[in-house]
C-alpha cells in the first residue's frame, strides 16, 4: 500500500507548473478545482486527508495524482495539515480486501466504477474501485465531479459504466499544423518537435479526455496525407500514445487509401490485389511495433476527392475488410466513414450514403464499424437523423458529431451543442418498432452489437483555452459525457459543466444553463430556420450565402438545398421529388411524406411549400420565417443581458472574452437575418410583415462580402 499525504504534492504541483494556479484563462477547463466554501472545504479536508492506492500502475498513479490535485484545490491548499487518518482509497476489485466487500462489479465491465464508503482493513475509507485501473481512473474523475458540483463525501454512492465502447475524438489536424474546420488555433500536436519534445499540454489533454470518459483519439485529418503513415510520423504518433496510455486513451490514425502507391511504390491500391493487402499488413505490423495498443484506422474513402476502393470498382466493404484484415491480428479496428457523395451522381446528396451502404449490410468484417454523420448532409445547425441508423442491422454503426462549429458560427458564436446531440440520439428510427432510437442503434442494444462507438470532430487547438472560447469547451465536455451515456440529457450536462467551469453557486449555474440550453436553437433560427440547410457562404461556410448558384458541383450550391422560387421554398424529398423519405422506416417515412405530419422544424428539409402556407402558429410560412430569424437574433440579445448580469460572478478574463464574443454573435446574427431576408425577398417579391425591421443593407451589399482568410478552410 502506498500512503501519501498530499501536502507535499501541493508544493510539487506548484513547482512543476503544468497545473499550477493561473489566471482564469480557460486553460484548466472544467478541472479548475477552485476552493470550496470554508465550511465545505474543512469537511472535505477532514474526510479525505490522504489518497491511497493499492497497486502501482501508471493509470492508478494518474488517478491518485488527479485526486490530490483536485482535493488540494477544493480544500484550499493553505488548510492542509494533519495526519492521514481518513482516506480516499483507489483499488481494483481484485484487491483482497475489496473482494470481500462483494460489490456488484460484474456489471461494470472494464471501464465502469463504483465509489462508496467502505470498511477496509478495519478503517472507514471512501473507496474508488472497478475491475480495471481505467475504471478506477474514471471513478476518480466521477468523484471529483461529484465534489465540484456540490456533492460531499458523506454518503457518496456513485456507480456507472459506459454504454458505448469507442468514445473517440476525430482531429482534422494536418501535418502542417493547420486544423481543417479548426477555430482554436494551430494543431495541438506540434508534429515538428515530436517525438523528442512532448509538450506538457499533451498530458493535460489526456486528463481532460479521461475526465469525461473519452478513450480514443484519431490524431490526423480524415483528408489524410500518406506521410502520416511513414516511419517518421509513426514515431511521433507513438510518442503521443505513450503520453495518453495511462489515461486510457488509444491512438488511431486516419489512413489514406492510396498510401500503398504513394508510400509503397505500388502501381495500385486495389483492395483485392494481394500485394496491396500485404503492404497494409506490413504497415499495420510496423505501427503495432511502435504502438502496441494502437486502436486502428479511420478512413474517408471516395468522398470529396479522397481515393478509395470505388476507384477500382470495388465496394466500400472490400476496402474496409482489406484494412480490417491487416489490423485484426492485433485486435485493431477500422472505422469506415459513410460520408460519401459523388459528383457523378445526380441523385439528391442526402440519399447517396444510404444508397451506397445499405446494400453492404452484413458484408463488413467483424472489426469494422461504419461511421455515420448525425445527419445525411453535413453537420448543419439542424438535420433530421441519418436514414442509415436502423437500416443496417447487421453492421455496427457509430455516430459522428461535429463539436467544432463549422456551420454554427465558428468559435465566436455561443452554441451549446448538447441539445443537438441529444435530439439526434433521442430520434426514433422505428426500425424495430417504437423506441428504436438512434441512441439504441449507437449503444448496440437495438441490434445486439458489442462493437459500438461515438466520434466527435474535435474543436481543440493550441489556443490557451483549447476550444477558442470558454463556452466551446462545453461541446467537448458534452460530447464525452454523451458518448459515455447517450441518454444522459443535455441539461444535466450543461449544469455540471457550468458548475465546474464557472462555479457551483445557483446564481451562476442557473443563468448559464439557461443561456446554453436555448443557444443552439437560436443559431438554427437566425441561420437555417424551419429545416433549411447549407445556405452558408462558399468554402469557409462562414456567414450567409443563400444566393450562391455558380459552383461546379450542384450540391455545393445553397440554391440546390433551399430551392426557393417565386412560389415557395424547400427541398421536395417526397415521392414527387427525390423520395429520400423512403429511406426511413415506413412509419417514419409515412409521417415525413406529408407536410402536415412533418415536424415544422424539418419542414423545408423534406418539402417544397408555398410562401403563404399556414403554419401551426397561424402565421404564413414567410411570416414564420421572419419571426424565427428575429427570435434567433433576440435570443442572442437576451444572452448578452444575462451574461451582463453575471459580471460580478465570473472572473474578468473569461467574462470579457465571452462578452465580446456575444457582441460579435449578435452582430452576425443580425447579418444572417438581414442577408437571408434580402435574398428571400428578391425571390418571392413579398414585403416584410408589419413591424419587422428592414435589412440594414441591400442584397448587393450582402453578396459583396467576402472572407478570403477565414480560419479552418482547407486550401
Ligand atoms: O463538413 C465537411 C467539411 C470538410 C470535411 C468533410 C468531411 C474533412 O466541410 O472540411 O473534410 O465534411 O467530413 O469529410
Blueprint of the fold:
Elements: E1 2-5, H1 7-16, H2 38-47, E2 50-53, H3 58-75, E3 87-92, H4 96-99, E4 113-120, E5 123-130, H5 133-148, E6 157-160, E7 166-170, H6 200-211, E8 216-218, H7 231-244, E9 250-254, H8 259-262, H9 274-290, E10 296-299, H10 316-327, E11 333-337, H11 349-357, E12 368-373, E13 397-402, H12 418-426, H13 438-442, E14 453-457, H14 473-484, H15 490-502, H16 506-527, H17 558-562, E15 568-569, H18 586-592, H19 603-606, E16 609-610, H20 621-645, H21 652-684, H22 699-704
Parallel strand pairs: 2-3, 3-5, 7-8, 7-14, 8-9, 9-10, 10-11, 11-12, 12-13, 13-14
Antiparallel strand pairs: 1-2, 4-5, 4-6, 15-16
Helix pairs in contact: 1-3, 3-5, 9-10, 12-15, 14-15, 15-16, 16-20, 20-21
Bound molecules: 4-O-methyl-beta-D-glucopyranuronic acid.
